[in-house]
Design goal:
The complex is a heterodimer. By secondary structure, chain A is an all-alpha fold. Chain A contains 12 helices and 4 strands; from the N terminus they run αααββββααααααααα. A two-stranded antiparallel sheet of chain A has the order 1-2. A two-stranded antiparallel sheet of chain A has the order 3-4. The radius of gyration of chain A is 24 Å and the shape is globular. Chain A starts with a helix and ends in a 5-residue tail after the last helix. In chain B, helix 2 crosses helix 10 and helix 3 packs parallel to helix 4. The chains are: A mainly alpha, B alpha/beta.
Chain lengths: 317, 300
């Protein structure tokens, strides 16, 4: 009797502790968001900041440059006339991220299909941990690799004008994204019930036809979730792009040119910026935007994983 | 009058002394230019080895940050890679009723690096400005091959970035295609690997690239970035590095400053990779420290 009461008491205590831990973790994230948001707010409302930068400067084309060579979008915060156009940074982030996804998505999904559908058991047991190990490589190491080795290879092959460019940074970033897409896709593919495959074989499908026509479509929301989460990782990743992208804020769609991303801009400039200046607040605004983008992407990814689970357990259809 | 002053000085030393007595050490704070942090730290290390009773704390943050700290009275010595502006000197006078004492302590030069395969053998300041502001984009236009110029530079928080912008670009904006790299070593590495590249940075660093001679304008002779040319002020992209004090320094701060402009302190400058002061400049700095403060006495 006494021991049972003790058990209950212990259960209650452990439950409370876990609950508290969860509350602390969540409230920390909310507090961080509030802090970052509060530091970004003056860009929208402070008259003092508006003397130097307004939303207009941040987003719309300006009359910078010389009359002969107009530069509508310039990121040049340390200048006689500070210029804070976010467009080159948005475009840079988009270019690098797209490149990373173009490189990583086919490789990761193909690897996931191979390991779940075709690889013998021992090989599967070997490949999985090795790919997941990729996630453990510190991003600074990937960045260094891209800076010293990869950039030279690419330039030798493609003769780029810029040695450090969006393609170089994108491939290095892709290496960081592959494990995310692979792991989630692999989970989704293995979660497809054996009976789906057996049904396909019974209808005369080859293993390839079963994998491509039945298993992959069934697991598609999960695979897509992996892609979305990978995209979120790529948008926020800092060290690789800081080292491998050249960090020139150019507004162009040419992937062979250098790019400067939102995250790398914060990393490079925040440490030395004058506390409370317009530049400081703009960097926090960028942080808020990055936070919002990754938050939405992660939420979307979670939604899709949930949808997959419902679909495979038969809740839908 | 003089003895009164001495009593005042003693009182001041006592006051400062008591506050640091707990640590049993006399503290000197040095703050300012990031370019000079390593230099300041080397000085502090060597000096503290000789004078174990003195603790010297060196931090960076930028010349502007250091000068602000001097105005607010939170640092003894400011390291600055540019002269103090008139407004800052006036601020110091207004807030602490002290005159800024400027002490040149070393000389620094910026070299322009090209890839070793690049046939261009010299550039003028105007050409450099045209290249870095995007007016000239092909090496052909400055006597090189028919190739695009690839620009390398530093992040905008770097003192080198600001110095190059002020002295070479005459405050014009860098062209957006300048690739911002973290540190001079990264710039050199990039230029060494890129036949079309151009970069700038400290003279002492140039290994594996060529640091080209620079001329002041199209008609003047060009000078190699060597120690002799920098010291004789012939090489056009060079500057003094300064220490600033609020008023005439005294006690340990003064002893430290005197050591820094001594031959021994100047040897450290060479070891770190900057240029020591020329003998005339050095003696002028020594004389500045020897001078009694007149302006502050008048006010007190």
């Amino acid at each position: 009797m006494a021991s049972r009461a003790q058990h209950r008491w212990k259960d209650w205590l452990i439950e409370r502790v876990i609950y508290l831990a969860a509350v602390v973790a969540i409230s920390l994230i909310i507090l961080i968001f509030l802090f970052v948001g509060r530091e970004a707010l003056p860009v929208l409302i402070s008259a003092e900041v508006h003397e130097e930068v307004t939303l207009d400067n941040l987003l719309l084309a300006q009359e910078y440059g010389t009359p002969g060579a107009r530069l509508p979008y310039v990121w040049q915060p340390v200048s006689e006339v500070p210029k804070y156009s976010l467009m080159p940074l948005f475009l840079g982030t988009l270019k690098v991220t797209l490149m990373a996804m173009l490189f990583a998505t086919p490789l990761a999904i193909a690897a996931a299909i191979y390991t779940t559908e075709f690889a013998p058991r021992w090989l599967r047991e070997a490949i999985k941990p090795v790919v997941e190990l990729l996630a453990g490589i510190p991003s600074v190491v990937l960045g260094f690799f891209a800076l010293i080795v990869l950039a030279s290879w690419l330039q030798d092959v493609f003769r780029f004008d810029f040695r450090l460019n969006a393609i170089n940074a994108g491939i290095a970033l892709g290496l960081a994204v592959i494990p995310i897409i692979y792991t989630i896709s692999e989970d989704a593919l293995s979660a497809v019930p054996r009976s789906y495959r057996n049904a396909a074989y019974a209808l005369g499908a080859s293993p390839w036809q079963a994998a491509w026509g039945v298993v992959l479509p069934a697991a598609l929301p999960g695979v897509f979730a992996g892609v979305v989460l990978g995209f979120g990782r790529a948008v926020g990743e800092t060290m690789i792009v800081l080292m491998a992208s050249g960090n020139a804020a150019i507004t162009s769609w040419n992937f062979a040119e250098s790019v400067r991303t939102l995250s790398a801009t914060i990393a490079a400039e925040l440490a030395e910026v004058v506390f409370g200046s317009a530049h400081y607040h703009v960097l926090f605004l960028i942080g808020t935007l990055l936070f919002a983008i990754t938050f939405v992407l992660n939420w979307l990814g979670a939604q899709m994983v949930g949808r997959l689970r419902r679909r495979l357990t038969g809740a839908v259809r | 009058m003089k003895s009164k002053l001495e009593i005042l000085a003693v009182l001041l030393v006592l006051l400062v002394g008591t506050s640091v007595l707990l640590a049993q050490q006399r503290n000197i704070t040095v703050k300012g230019s990031d370019t000079m942090v390593i230099l300041g730290q080397r000085w502090a290390e060597v000096y503290m080895q000789k004078h174990p009773s003195v603790a010297i704390q060196v931090t960076g943050g930028g010349s502007g940050t250091g000068i602000a700290a001097l105005i607010n009275g939170t640092t003894d010595i400011v390291e600055a890679s540019r002269p103090m502006k008139d407004r800052e000197i006036a601020d110091l006078r207004a807030k602490r009723s002290k005159e800024a004492l400027e002490l040149p302590v070393a000389v620094d030069g910026l070299a322009v690096y090209l890839n070793e395969q690049n046939p261009v053998s010299e550039l003028s300041l105007q050409q450099l400005k045209a290249i870095y502001t995007g007016v000239v984009r092909n090496w052909k236009e400055v006597g090189g091959r028919d190739e695009r110029i690839v620009l390398y530079g530093r992040e905008n928080n770097s003192g080198t970035y600001v110095y190059f912008k002020e002295h070479v670009l005459e405050n014009a904006d860098y062209y957006p295609t300048v690739q911002a790299l973290p540190g001079t070593a990264a710039v050199i590495n990039a230029v060494a690997k890129d036949p079309r590249g151009i970069g700038y940075g400290g003279i002492a660093y140039a290994k594996g690239v060529k640091a080209i001679p620079v001329k002041k304008d199209a008609n003047s002779p060009s000078f190699e970035p060597t120690m002799e040319n920098v010291l004789a002020a012939r090489y056009p992209i060079s500057r003094y590095l300064y220490w600033y004090f609020a008023g005439q320094p005294s006690g340990e701060v003064r002893a430290f400053a005197q050591w820094v402009v001594s031959k021994e302190g100047q040897q450290v400058v060479k070891d770190v990779g900057y240029y020591p002061l020329g003998e005339n400049d050095r003696l002028a700095s020594v004389a500045k420290l020897a001078r009694k403060e007149e302006k502050t006495t008048a006010k007190q």
